[in-house]
Design brief:
By secondary structure, the chain is α/β, with parallel strands linked by helices. It is built from 29 helices and 14 strands. The strands form three sheets. The chain has an eight-stranded mixed sheet with strand order 7-6-5-8-9-11-10-13, sandwiched between helices. The chain has a four-stranded antiparallel sheet with strand order 1-2-3-4. Helix 1 packs antiparallel against helix 2.
Length: 804
């Protein structure tokens, strides 16, 4: 009688069949990454883009993969494994469509139920679980199911490693296809259709292979058995490997976006390089697994990872930031892409190759230690994914903010060394000596990890041109971004977020920030409740807070570190807004706050991160402006920063056209520098009442408005009429220029792709010249007032147009 733990002999799959399975896994991986990018982007629109929301999404997505891989190791596989694999792919395709349709529905239900406090986190978890878990569990089950199709244990371990490599390489193609084409040219719906088509094609080919006479059928799997003693260290090392991989990815993404710019293209490139390394490393590991001592090779990978991570930390802090690159010099997109790929690969690729090799080596080691292939691959995948979840969440929410990125990288090096030691200490004397060498190697690597240069945190990719002699007076690493403050010899302060100047006390920036705040409160008849999206230095919120008519100011700020920085360094120019009793600062992204609040406002002013920053485009979509309009009281006003520098004409046209669709009475107030384009404030009103110049003048003449009047004078406006005379265009005059402009919607987030192409483009003057070419077409309809006021405004408008 045959022992139950062994399967009866089966026919070996042909080389052609095995190659076909690799192609199937490649296509499946491509579809999975397309889904991942589209789903996480769409879900963040509804449950928020705060660190808490993104942590929930990442944990749920990866948790589904983990649960699916574990579930696939239980019970028996009856019938053809390829048929089961095809069924899984068809179910993933079905859930791909269902998820796309369900996200807005569940998002709407979430917005209706959500509020402040712990309940919000629970609801986010429920929404993420309902949308992501069904499909991701099915994805996680595919590799263990196919393991039952393979013949012998040694053969299975090698070929499963190749399947993992093929799946990862497919993920590279999916990341690039989604980031550079499907979502840039089309939208989430088209991307989902492509992913669904890939799943259906994979299922059809798998069924065709299953019908071939030579295709072996899976036999009932053996009963569940605990891994043998020798395999325990392999699972522990695999968990640590997954933890260090995702933790390092979080850190490297933060640091590389400082250096390159946080566009959607940068994120796609980082993901593609990481997955490429994992895929190539997996192929090498699969090839080596049969020829070497897999356990020793796995331990060597973990020890070398300590060196690779230390080298990456050194390169990021001491080498790449100081390459003599001037991003303001004109170049082609192709050259910039090559340069970005080179720098990303320089940091990410060495360690990614080692992480990639670790999984097939761990699989071979576990199988040789006595674990059954199907169960081994499921358990290893689950262990690796569970470690990845812990690494990503702990790094994002705890380690960076508590101990800083430098010490976090040192902890990751120690964790990799611990994985190597665990694998070696159970061996003979030679293995124990190698364990001692690995520990010493890690200690040396830890000592070489440097801190990031403060000027890199402040100036990012402009370090070599603008930040060479920077006086950085503050650096802080927050949950979502790193923040810095610099001070000039003349006392000028600059607030930097994620390597980009976001606010300052330079005259042109002070004028823009004050315009945003004062236009928001001076235009409405009764500006009692005001929402400020994005605190930054606090200067815009401060301008809002000093208006006597304003009774309450709500500030939605994504990064918890920012209020502390504003209070400490920008207290005077922000009028002490952080300590103001009528100011309520909420740690939340503006869109999520608006979607979940029941409050209504008389004014909303938005000064978010630049539109090219990944995620910022969600604050410029048609749906977002409709949400703002819904939350405004009648006669309310929206003001928003319009960036003209480091952007393209198509991006500005998209931004304005989308806004005008919702606010057909939109007006553009220019903030110029010596008559040339710099930036502007876009104003929309709920209702058709004109801007009352008489009321504006009356307010500014009152004693209680003296602080507001002085605030305006300090940035060059001698009166309310002078402020209103910055009107450069309105919806009527913009009509011809905006014709054919692409609209930025929740489905396509077009602006982040258009603006991302203008990261190093400096054409503000040319863009402004086209924007203001015709001047306002209906100024007399936009304003009301006495004949003298209207005539004076006409003359001031004409005078400013002469300056343009």
């Amino acid at each position: 009688m045959q022992p139950p733990e062994f399967s009866p002999p089966r026919a070996s799959p042909s080389p052609a069949a095995l190659a076909a399975v690799l192609a199937l896994f490649g296509a499946s991986g491509c579809a999975a990454l397309i889904y991942q990018i589209a789903w996480l982007e769409r879900l963040s629109l509804f449950i928020g883009s705060s660190a808490m929301s993104l942590g929930v999404l990442l944990a749920t997505f990866m948790g589904g993969l983990c649960l699916g891989s574990l579930a696939a190791t239980r019970g028996t596989v009856r019938g053809s494994a390829l048929v089961r694999y095809a069924q899984l792919e068809l179910l993933v395709a079905a859930f791909g469509v269902v998820t796309l349709l369900a996200i807005p529905l569940l998002g709407g239900a979430y917005a209706a139920l959500a509020g402040g406090g712990p309940l919000t986190l629970g609801l986010r978890l429920v929404v993420a679980a309902l949308t992501l878990l069904p499909a991701t569990m099915l994805m996680g089950a595919t590799l263990p199911v196919v393991a039952a199709w393979l013949e012998t244990r040694a053969h299975a371990a090698a070929w499963l490693g190749w399947c993992y490599a093929a799946n990862t390489v497919g993920g590279v193609l999916g990341a690039l296809l989604a980031g550079f084409y499907l979502l840039r040219v089309h939208d989430a719906r088209v991307a989902t259709v492509v992913a669904v088509a890939l799943n259906v094609g994979v299922a059809a080919l798998a069924l065709a292979l299953a019908r071939r006479p030579s295709a072996p059928l899976a036999t009932p799997a053996p009963a569940a058995a605990a891994p043998r003693t020798g395999a325990s260290a392999v699972y522990a090392a695999t968990t640590l490997s997954g933890m260090t991989a995702l933790a390092a990815e979080v850190l490297w993404t933060r640091h590389l976006t400082l250096l390159i710019g946080g566009t959607v293209y940068t994120f796609a490139l980082i993901l593609a390089v990481l997955l490429s390394g994992l895929g190539l490393g997996s192929a090498a590991g699969a090839a080596l697994g049969k020829r070497v001592d897999a356990r020793l090779a796995l331990a060597s990978c973990q020890a070398l990872l300590a060196v690779a991570m230390a080298a990456a930390a050194y390169v990021l802090a001491r080498s790449l930031p100081f390459w003599p690159i001037d991003v303001e010099l004109p170049t082609t997109a192709a050259v910039q892409l090559q340069l970005d790929l080179l720098r990303i690969a320089y940091v990410v690729l060495p360690a990614a190759l080692l992480w990639g090799a670790s999984f097939p080596l761990a699989l071979a080691a576990a199988v040789r230690a006595g674990d059954e292939p199907r169960r081994a691959v499921g358990r290893l995948y689950a262990a690796n994914t569970a470690g990845a979840i812990v690494g990503a969440l702990a790094t994002t929410f705890v380690l960076v903010t508590v101990v800083g990125s430098q010490h976090t990288q040192q902890l990751l090096i120690a964790a990799s060394a611990a994985g190597a030691v665990l694998l070696l200490v159970g061996g003979g004397s030679a293995a124990r000596r190698l364990a001692a060498v690995a520990a010493m190697l890690a200690a040396a690597a830890i000592a070489t990890v440097p801190a990031l240069p403060p000027a890199l945190v402040a100036y990012g990719r402009f370090l070599t041109t603008r930040g060479a002699d920077a006086n950085v007076v503050y650096v802080g690493e927050g949950v979502t971004a790193s923040v810095a403050v610099t001070e000039e010899p003349n006392g000028t302060l600059t607030y930097h977020n994620a390597g980009k100047t976001q606010a300052s006390t330079y005259p042109q920036d002070m004028r823009l920030q004050r315009m945003l705040g004062h236009l928001a409160t001076l235009i409405p008849a009764r500006p009692r409740q005001v929402l400020v999206i994005g605190l930054g230095a606090g200067i815009t919120a401060g301008a809002v807070s000093i208006d006597p008519a304003v009774e309450r100011v709500v500030v939605a700020e994504l990064e918890p570190l920012v209020p502390k920085v504003s209070a400490e360094f920008f207290g005077d120019p922000s009028f002490g807004v952080v300590a103001n009793d009528k100011v309520d600062i909420r740690t939340d992204d503006g869109r999520h706050f608006l979607a979940t609040t029941r409050e209504r406002f008389d004014a909303i002013t938005s000064d978010p991160l630049d539109p090219w920053v990944k995620g910022a485009a969600a604050l410029y979509t048609r749906e977002f402006w409709e949400l703002c309009k819904e939350r405004l009281n009648e006669g309310g006003v929206v003001t928003v920063f319009v960036q003209l520098y480091e952007t393209t004409e198509d991006a500005v046209r998209s931004e304005l056209a989308t806004f005008v669709d919702v606010f057909p009475n939109a007006a553009v107030f220019a903030n110029t520098v010596e008559g040339t384009g710099y930036d502007a404030v876009l104003v929309g009103r709920k209702g058709d009442e004109p801007i009352d110049l008489a009321l504006l003048a009356h307010r500014l003449d009152r004693d209680d408005y003296e602080r507001v009047a002085e605030s305006l004078r300090s940035v060059g406006f001698d009166s309310g009429l002078d402020l209103m005379s910055t009107l450069a265009a309105d919806a009527g005059s913009l009509h011809a220029w905006l014709e054919g402009a692409e609209r930025n919607t929740d489905h396509n987030l077009r602006l982040q792709y258009l603006a991302g192409r203008g990261l190093n483009v400096f054409a503000a003057d040319a863009i402004f010249a086209k924007l203001a070419a015709r001047g306002p077409s209906n100024a007399r309809e936009t304003f009301s007032g006495t004949p003298a006021q209207l005539e004076e405004l006409r003359q001031r408008l004409a005078g400013r147009r002469g300056d343009y």
